[in-house]
Amino acid sequence: MGQPSVRATTPPPEVRRIATEAEASELAHWLLMPGRRWPVVVLTIPGEHDEPFGDPDEIKQAVGGLAEVVLMPTSDVSWAFSRTMPAMTQVYGGAGRVYPVDHAWVSDPQRSRLRFAYSLHDRKRITDQLISDALQAAMAAGLVEPRTRRGAQQRSGRVRGIIGPRALVMFDDMSVATVWEELTVPGVPLDRVLAKGQQVDGSYDPDSRRLDLRAAVRFADAASARSRVQEAYQAGDVVLAQVVAVTDEVVTVRLLPSLSVEIGRKAVTSNQKDTLAGLFSVGEVVACRLVAVEPLQLRLDDVDDEEVPKPPPSLLPGGPPWLRLPEPEIQPQAAAPPASSFPKGAPPLADVVSDLPRQATPLDLAQRLSLSQPSEIARRVDAIPPADQARVRQLSNELAAERATRKALAGELEGLRARAGELEAELAQATRTIEHLQTRYRGADLARQRLSKQLRSAQDRVDQAARLEGALFLDPEEQFRYEVACEWAQRIPAAEKADKPLAKYTLAAGFLESVDQLEGISRAKVVAVVVEVLTGQAQHLPGRDAHALRTGAAGSPYVRRSDGAICWRVALQRESAAARRLHYWRTQDSYELSRVALHDDYRP
Questions:
Q1: pLDDT of residue 2
Q2: Residue 7 located in a structural domain
Q3: Which of 181, 258, 429, 447 lies in the 20 to 30 Å Cα band around 597?
Q4: Could you tell me if 134 and 21 lie in one domain?
Q5: Which residues of the chain have pLDDT under 50?
Q6: Are 415 and 491 within one domain?
Q7: DSSP for 524-589?
């Protein structure tokens, strides 16, 4: 059977069956051909079966003209397909796969997920998975952009219930329609878009009985999403976000489906041994601190357990908040591995698969076991003259033994399929456990950081009380100047004092108050950095990050007073949005210490 033409505008209307090795090879070349206009669903028939575990007709009915559906047996036919396809992109043994239009799956097979099925009990699961994958691939290819179809009707109804990725909507005339998760907001579960009893409006297609709500989705672009965030939140709020990407140094989260923010490791953990990829999983929901609204800045190291996040916006009018924190999970005790269900008397597995590649998978084994050709013994029996009864009996016994062996191998194959299903379930549970442990570790790390801050704050208060008790001057400015002079005398070696004298300086109104009121930094540290500034050392110390303030973004003018003085800032602390900075004015022949402020406070 030939492949569709690249110039064709719609996929074949029926399920296409691959019957020969040549057709399988043509299918592989078709999938790899540039210019293919629609996704292709390939569902395979497991060995020793005549029909697949999934339902190709239901898949085709669901995807309609958005995708092509192909059915292929597991035999020499699927081997021909596998030989042509790139590594890790093949499909056989009862599994299924959707091949998107975008060829990124060729180098990244995870973009074309392999969906497994091990028996007819998996029929609904694999069918639903392939439908979902196909519709998402069609969405990504731009085949289902919101538009008015011929015959579509604008209708209103109420959500009667949500079951997995489907919702039932009842209209006023008691007729019903379905809403499909894949055709609402990509990557968002349907129960985070709709709620039972919610009133909805959309475009109804009488042929498929689907209600398309995408035209009513709010905040579909970054500009409207950013505007909504600015209306709903303010700096300091604790908000929910979803992890969409993570590397060792950056975790990317989204406050709304179309609005993402990058958070560096400095805003996540102070433990240099942590890697963000080990702390977060894509898809999980986390609580963040909104540091600034314009531009958007988030932190993940400054949220207390008792703080309640602000409710996230709803994506449809009257809908639920689109994000929610997961419920705490009670971890079950690990169960002992199940006993083997392989039949007794089966030949050793190594004898059956001795010629398989070293990296062979259970699916490779399943395929190899199902490739037995029509029995040579049976053909020999047919060719024996009736008179040679002894020979016939001998060959009949051999044939019975071969059939028994084949039956045992089939039983072993079923055991392998069952074990593969168990391993897949165990993997899903292990993934959930990892995410749970990541959340617990982050909670413990946040508690550690909070205790460290409390300890520093307490120490600051102790230091301040000691200073007040041991102050040598009644005038606060005289006391500060005395401390600066003592720090300079102790810090600068005698041989260098002539080259590093203290420059002339004044204290701006409110400077000493800012030193006393700002927690999280000791007075001794402020005094030490003031000495570095007044001796000219701060300009050459990388840790001080000395630079002139600007009036706005990079390239804008520096902050300058009418007397020509320029405002500078140096770091008192590093690696935190709450890190303290020293602001001072630099004139031609002296300094004026302005105030101590937080990193994100850019006032002179």
A1: 61
A2: no
A3: 447
A4: yes
A5: 334-374
A6: no
A7: HHHHHHHHHHHTT-GGG-GGG--EE-BSSSTTSPBPB-TTS-EEEEEESS-SSTT-EEEEEEE-SS
Q: Residue 46 has what pLDDT?
A: 92
Q: Is residue 371 part of a domain?
A: yes
Q: Beta partners for 288?
A: 239
Residues 246 and 354 in one domain: no
Cα–Cα dist 407/410, whole Å: 5
Residue 147 is assigned to a structural domain of this protein: no
What residues are paired with 212 via a beta bridge?
A: 203
Considering its fold, how many domains does the chain have in total?
5
Q: State the pairing for strand pair 96-99/40-45.
A: antiparallel
Give the model confidence (pLDDT) of 185-194 as tens digits.
888 999 999 9
Q: Using DSSP bridges, classify how beta strands 68-73 and 40-45 pair: parallel, antiparallel or unpaired.
A: parallel
Give the rounded distance of the alpha carbon of 53 from its chain centre: 30
Can you give the pLDDT at residue 167? 93
User: Whole-angstrom Cα distance, residue 595 to residue 572?
Assistant: 12
Supply the angle between the helices 523-534 and 476-491 in degrees, to the nearest 10: 70
Same domain, 114 and 87: yes
The reported pLDDT for the residue numbered 503 is 94
Its domain, for residue 514, covers 476-598
Q: Which of 266, 299, 332 is the last residue of a domain?
A: 299
Residue 566 contacts by C-beta under 8 Å, 6 or more apart in sequence?
Answer: 548, 549, 558, 559, 560, 585, 586
Residue finishing a domain among 140, 173, 193: 140
Q: Phi then psi for 96, rounded to 5 degrees?
A: -140, 160
Which residue bears the tokens 């005398």?
489
Q: Are residues 95 and 210 in the same domain?
A: no
Token pair of 549, please? 């303030």
Cα distance between residue 104 and residue 89, in whole Å = 11
299 in Cβ contact with 288 (< 8 Å): yes
| Buried b / exposed e along 132-155 (16+ C-beta atoms within 10 A) | bbbbbbbbebebbeeeeeeebeeb
The conformation of residue 358, written as its DSSP 8-state character, comes to T
Instruction: State the greatest distance between any 2 C-alpha atoms of the chain, in Å, as a whole number.
Output: 129
pLDDT digits (tens, 9 = 90+) for 328-340: 655 555 444 444 4
Say if residue 515 is in the same domain as residue 584: yes
CATH number, position 210: 2.40.50.140
Helix/strand number for the chain, H first, E second: 12, 20
Is residue 50 in some structural domain?
yes
Based on the domain organization, do 103 and 158 belong to the same domain? no
How deeply is 268 buried, as exposed, middle or buried, from its count of CB atoms within 10 A (0-12, 13-18, 19+)?
Answer: buried
| Interval 300-324: pLDDT, tens | 887 877 788 999 999 999 999 999 9
Looking only at the bridges linking them, the beta strands covering 250-256 and 199-205 are unpaired
